[in-house]
């Protein structure tokens, strides 16, 4: 099923031509209206009319999150403030948030993109979507909310938290689709198990859209089998509308990135130089269809690669692979670069492991992984526990090279998260 079949299946040639045309318009627009971009282009001796092909974009500097912060509150606006109708912010760990403005047209466009995602994965009128992302300055819930209404889906704007009430809503209104972070979905699975509920028997769930933070394929598989539903990976960031930038189709082999709206590049995160096709690197995005706040060559810090092979679903927009991690999330132990997802991937594939874990960094030589295990295992034989612990240590060592300390802890004993999780506790002084 398609929402906008013509554009979703546009030939590659036409898609590239459309990108070039939109890129030209975007560059002209920001050159004229945003001093920051005019300066950047002048500094590189580039004028919008110099644009000949999509590759020419590499002549322009990147936009970083620091640039957005420096422009706070409205330095990068390309319309009058009165033409903006919505503000979202995205806060990092430090400093001022990034403020992103949307015009009426931008919001319509963002909803169109997410409507494509909903319909692509089989959701439509008759479905009931429980929107368990946070409503507010975060883009997650509101963007999905309006897109689902546009498609004609009944939306329950529950937001996150109050898990007992969430369950009541699911039961009373026959929720078929969840929109949720992986952290909260893992917690919910644990909660259901403790409440003695079997989702397949007691709920009407068919699928969940899961994103806003990295998670591994192993976690997806684990949750799919716990719930008996389909999990679709959803990628996006506030700077580029929020959710709906890239989304999995039914094939679940990578996420289609809507190339009529975003131009993607993949670069070496250290040098900023382009990666060869299919190689992993940092995703760089340029908005091609935004009015209020176009952003050129944005450094997402997210590590992925492009899948250029045609997809069985017929969509021509190329796919990106599951985000391996944020360049910023990577940590180093004994000189080895490690992403939290590597640890997660190992843990979630071990039987007996429950849903929650934590990584503690006390020194540059040692990491400790605390992992909740299932109740039956926790209360079982001590030899079994020792075997399980050794198995986890071995598997982690072969994945991340470093041999970690592993602590098996009681289910329900580690902090839980209703939004994005924080699983790495770095106690080292810099
Ligand atoms: O998290 C937008 C969103 C909401 C996406 C709901 C999907 C679903 P921010 O708060 O600005 O926006 O955070 C964006 O989250 O740069 C990635 O590092 C990470 N991220 C988002 N989706 C995924 C995903 C929203 N599916 C940042 N896999 C991004 C891995 C993800 N990381």
Automatic annotation (TrEMBL):
Annotated GO MF terms: nucleotide binding; phenylacetate-CoA ligase activity
Record-listed E.C. numbers: 6.2.1.30
Any single GO BP term: phenylacetate catabolic process
Occurrences of domain AMP-dependent synthetase/ligase (ranges): 88-285
Segments forming domain AMP-dependent ligase C-terminal: 335-428
Keyword Metal-binding on entry: no
Pathway entry: Aromatic compound metabolism; phenylacetate degradation
Keywords for the protein's UniProt record, in alphabetical order: Ligase, Nucleotide-binding
Reaction it catalyzes: 2-phenylacetate + ATP + CoA = phenylacetyl-CoA + AMP + diphosphate
Enzyme category, top tier: ligase
InterPro entries listed in its UniProt record: AMP-bd_C_sf (IPR045851), AMP-dep_Lig_C (IPR028154), AMP-dep_synth/lig_dom (IPR000873), ANL_N_sf (IPR042099), PA_CoA_ligase (IPR011880)
Pfam families: AMP-binding, AMP-binding_C_2
Coiled-coil blocks: none
Complex formation: Monomer.
Biological function: Catalyzes the activation of phenylacetic acid (PA) to phenylacetyl-CoA (PA-CoA).
Protein name as catalogued: Phenylacetate-coenzyme A ligase
Species per Swiss-Prot/TrEMBL record: candidate division TA06 bacterium ADurb.Bin417
